[in-house]
Amino acid sequence: MKKQILLVVIGLIFFSNSIVMAEERIEFNGGVTYNNFVYSDIDSGKLNDDYWVRESLNNGTGFYLEGLVWLGNKWGIGGGIDRASSSWSSFETYADSSRSDYLSKYDLDGYYGKLSYKLSDEIRLNLGISKHNFVEKYSEDNSWENGAFNEAVVDGDGLGYLLEAQVDYPVNDHLALIGSFGYRKADIDVKRVYDWNQNKLVESQEDNTIGVDGLRAGINLALKF
Fold it and tell me: Torsion angle of alpha carbons 137, 113, 68, 119, nearest 10°?
């Protein structure tokens, strides 16, 4: 069953299509996204604007799958799943020609409810309220050591939202190119952190939150019948 679901997801991602049925009242969308994150470390309610990776997550991809029901000519409601990621990488070289490579990867996986409003046949505004799971993975590879450190170092969950504008570019009566651009925000309650003494994730003993602000751009094809 899991394999079948995975094949369906992959198919939707690569074909990036949406199908509209029942006189365009029911709509299924799937597409790929580009994501840009700005992270903030919020410790006991205080924002840390000096968080080391705050402005460095400028490269990330993702996808979304959703269903939408149109209640009339203007309003639609629905929901879907969303995966977004971004990463940071760097390296250091030393006088003895040794080297250290660093990689931090940040994943947001979640589901959302959505409200859409059509400004016209081609333009709509979307508001999504989301529930996210969050994982930060860190990798460090030192040339003088055998094997690299590669573990999840933080995980948690939280609520967020996505504000988005979407434009349909009709190619013909049955085919359209859809582009979207939006802003997301989520507050993640840190549940577990990596304990370097125990070499594993343990329950966080502090009241920490990670704030995620980011831009999302998406593109897919729409097939309408």
Answer: -110
For residue 61, give its domain range: 25-224
Q: Tell me if 165 is assigned to some domain.
A: yes
68 near 116, Cβ under 8 Å? yes
Q: How many domains, in total, are found in the chain? A: 1
In a domain, 10, yes or no: no
Residue-wise DSSP of 151-203: EEEEEEEEEEEEEEEEEEEESSSSEEEEEEEEEEEEEEEEEEEEETTTTEEEE
What confidence tens digit (pLDDT) does each residue in 131-160 have?
A: 999 998 989 999 999 888 999 988 999 999
Q: Is residue 197 part of a domain?
A: yes
* Residue 57 lies inside a defined structural domain of this protein: yes
Angle at 219 between CA 132 and CA 164, to 5 degrees: 55
Low-confidence ranges of the chain (pLDDT < 50): 1-17, 20-22, 45, 54
Mean model confidence pLDDT for the chain? 80
pTM of the model as a whole: 0.76
